[in-house]
Amino acid sequence: MHARFLAGLVLASAALAPVAVPADVTINIGVPPPLAIVLPAPPTLVVVPGYPTVRYAPSLQVDLFFHGNLWYYSHGGFWYAGPSWKGPWHHVVVEKLPPAIVVVPVKFYRIPPGHLKKAGPPGRAGGPPGHAKGKGRGKGKN
Questions:
Q1: For residue 130, which of 45, 44, 67, 48 has the smallest C-alpha distance?
Q2: Domain residue ranges in the chain
Q3: Mean predicted confidence (pLDDT) in 104-131
């Protein structure tokens, strides 16, 4: 009887023992949430000349683009995408932006985005074609 009690106690404690469970957590440290875009109605969009699949909102004080059923918003050196002009916004790394958004000339921005302020991949320093700012390569020097 004593042996059965001990065997039962061992089995019960084994059932309550912690079990390792795989988990995956992603934390974006250093990517601030975007500012909310608060408008009474959808913004008026204009086609970016030379880029017929990209539209932008020239009347806003923020850089807001529409392409391929998503809205793209550049703020604070980061890019965000969302299903509506109101969001919700999720962070998008420059390498994952659609090429049509990346090549929009800098003159269609209120504030040049982060990917235009940093050197790009080899052969693309200073951003995509049409984005370089004079001899200073993005530093505003002519």
A1: 48
A2: 38-129
A3: 59
In angstroms, the CA 56 to CA 63 distance is: 8
Residues 113/62, Cβ–Cβ less than 8 Å: no
The DSSP-derived string for 39-88 is -SSPPP-EEETTEEEEEE-TTSSSEEEEETTEEEEEETTEEEEESSTT--
Please give the helix or strand (H or E) that residue 7 lies within, else none: helix 2-16
Instruction: Write the DSSP symbol of residue 17.
Output: S
Specify the residue for token string 């391929």.
Answer: 68
pLDDT digits (tens, 9 = 90+) for 14-44: 555 555 556 555 555 677 777 778 888 999 9
pLDDT digits (tens, 9 = 90+) for 69-104: 999 998 888 899 999 998 899 999 989 999 999 999
